[in-house]
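REQUEST FORM: STRUCTURE PREDICTION
Request ID: SP-0412
Submitted by: Lab K.M.
Chain count: 1
Length (residues): 320
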Amino acid sequence: MIDSRASKLTVVGAGSVGSSLAYAALIRGSADIISLYDINTKKVDAEVLDLAHGTRFMAASRVEGGSDISCVAGSDVVVITAGARQEPGQTRLDLAEANVNILSTLLPQLIEQAPDAVYMLVTNPCDVLTTAALEISGLPRGRVLSSGTVLDSSRLRWVIGRWVRVAPSSVHAMIVGEHGDSEFALWSSATIGQVNVAHWRDPEGELVFTEEIRRQLEREVIDAAYAVIQGKGATNYAIGVAGARIVEAILGDQKAILPVSTVLDDFHGISSVALSVPSIIGRSGVERVLDFPMNEEENRRLHASAEALISAQAKLGLGS
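STATUS: Completed
RESULT:
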C-alpha cells in the first residue's frame, strides 16, 4: 500500500544544480512538498522566493526551505547537490577528497532530521561519494544511491537519435559504469524501436553504426559535461530534470529501471564500489540490481571502470 500522506523532497544545495533540480521537480510535480536547504541564507531565501513566485503556473507542489536544517525534517527523499564545483579541465575524481570531507560533516546532520529518507547524491564524483555516504551513514544499501549515468544515458539516446533523425524516446540505450571518464555504452543491447543498432541501415541500405561511429558518439557523451562546463561554468538543466525523474520513481514506487549508482555486492565479481547498472527503483530506493547481458568487451570495460573507482576510493580509505 502506498502512503497517502504528502510526499516531501529536500534538495540540499541552492547552487545551479540544486536550484535547477528543485525547479524541475516543481514543474513536473515530483513531490507534494519541495524544500531547498543551504547554509547560505541570502542565496537560499532568494531561490525559494523566486521558485515560489512561479508556483501558480506549476504542478500542485509547495515550495519551502531556508538555511535552518530543520527544513529537512520529514523528508522522504533527500538529494544532495552541495559540494565543491567542478572547474574547467578538472575531472570528477579530482573533486573526491574535498567533497567526501563535506559529506562526512553534512550527512549525519541530515539523517538526524530525516532518518527514514532515501538519500541520493548528485554531487561529483557521485560514485565515490555514494560509497562514502553508505559508510558514513550506516543506512541500508538500497537507500543510498546517486544519479549515476541516468543523465549520461539520456545524452546517449539524444546523440543516437540526432544521428539517424529519430526521436530520443524511440532509442533504447544505456551508459553504465562510472559516471565519468571510464563509463561506456551497452551497444550490444541498444535498439532503435525494435531494431538493434548493429542492424540499423540508412535509406541506401548501408549499416550506420560502424565501430568508428559508435566510438565517436560514445566519446561525445563522455565529453559532454566538459563541453558544457567549458562554455557556461556548470551543467544544471539536464541533471536537474534527470534527478527529478529519479525522485518520481522513488516517491511513486514506480519500479522503474534506471542506471543509478549504488554500492555493488558481488555483481559480476565486483563488490564494495558504486557503479551505475540497470536497477529497479521504488519506494525504498534501489530495490534490485539487475543482471544484464554483456559481450566480452563490455564485461571487460565494466571491470576496468570498477578498478578506476576502487583505486580512487583506496586513496581516500573507502571501500575496504
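NOTES: The radius of gyration is 19 Å.
Reviewed by: T.R.
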